[in-house]
Amino acid sequence: MTKVSYVITVYNKAPFLPGVIDALKCQQGDFEREFIFINDGSSDESMQVVKRETAGLENVVLIDQKNQGVAIATNNGVKVARGDVIKLVDSDDILAPFCTELLLKTMKETESDFVFGISGEYETEISFEKPDQPEVIRFEDPLYSVIDRGFARVSHCLFKKSLFKKAGGCDERVFSQDHSLFIRLCTHGTLAQVRHTVCLSPKDEPGRIMNNNAQVIHDATIALAYHLQDHDDLSAKHKKAAQKKIISRVWKWAKKEHKFGFFSSEFLLYLASSCGVSLQGDQLVYLCSIFRKNATVRLP
Fold first, then answer.
1. Which H or E run contains 163?
2. β-bridge pairing 191-202 and 136-138
3. CA torsion, ordered 123, 213, 86, 34, to nearest 10 deg
4. How far is the CA of 81 from the CAs of 94, 124, 200, in angstroms?
5. Does the chain have fewer CB atoms within 10 Å around its N or its C terminus?
């Protein structure tokens, strides 16, 4: 029987954890399960809430560590997971009762290593529409699709632990985990999506990483740059698409946030890249410093 390890990274989410844990308890499906909570140095009552809400629940693992960031916390959680399938959950996201079961079904039917659904948002009321033959997409070129479309987040996805290990886990040089996760897993495995909402995030939660635009675009871009730096064996198609995405983001950010003009080095690089000039991975990593200029961007 399939065993699913739920890996939940926790940092100062005490008000949300009762709902998150209740949704975990309500997951439907015939599979074994374990629940791994990694408290990443919370300064609120998060760990106490986790202990209270999981009392009496079987196969619970609690990890308490100093604050190191969500990418490192995720890797530490997966390391101790005993399941053959990993289900990551953000500690303020609510899973639909059918979330895990639907993702497992999609994984089996598409013969994929990595599957994800759609993530939505809620304000006050939480409700899900039951899946009724939702559309399923199996990507022919997973890495190119991730580069082109920028897939991210984690509570809507599920993957084989063996793939996570093969890919080297989340990139610990990047604070957030989701961008490097998609890039790395899709370099080594197959990808499918079920076009149905399987989880919800609070719309106006002030502590969400997603609410910091500089952090989001920095992590998404530098994760891609690090991947190019680490994988010189990527195809010319993937390298070209990744460089185009990185330099485009750099130029657009420089123009919008810093009012750089058409004589700036960022625009000249944008033009040069459009004409086929290639940069090295370390040069692309350096360009990502533009997102940290006059902005609050957390590093590991």
1. helix 161-167
2. antiparallel
3. -50
4. 21, 33, 24
5. N
Q: What angle do CA 19, 73, 159 make, to 5 degrees?
A: 75
Number of H helices, E strands in the chain: 11, 9
The type of residue at 102 is: L
Q: What pTM value is reported for the model?
A: 0.94
Q: Which two tokens stand for residue 264?
A: 């700036």
pLDDT beyond 80 at 209: no
Parallel, antiparallel, or unpaired for β 157-160 and 114-122? antiparallel
Q: Which residues contact 93 (CB under 8 A, 6 or more apart)?
A: 20, 119, 155, 199, 200, 201
| H-run or E-run covering 59 | none
Task: Give the tens place of pLDDT for each residue, 245-292.
Answer: 999 999 999 999 999 998 999 999 999 988 888 999 999 999 999 999
DSSP per-residue letters across 265-285: HHHHHHHHHHTT----HHHHH
Two tokens at 149? 């479309």
Q: What is the DSSP string of 229-272?
A: HH-TTS-HHHHHHHHHHHHHHHHHHHHHHH---TTSHHHHHHHH
Mean pLDDT, all residues of the chain: 95
Q: How far is Cα 152 from Cα 178, in angstroms, rounded to an integer?
A: 5
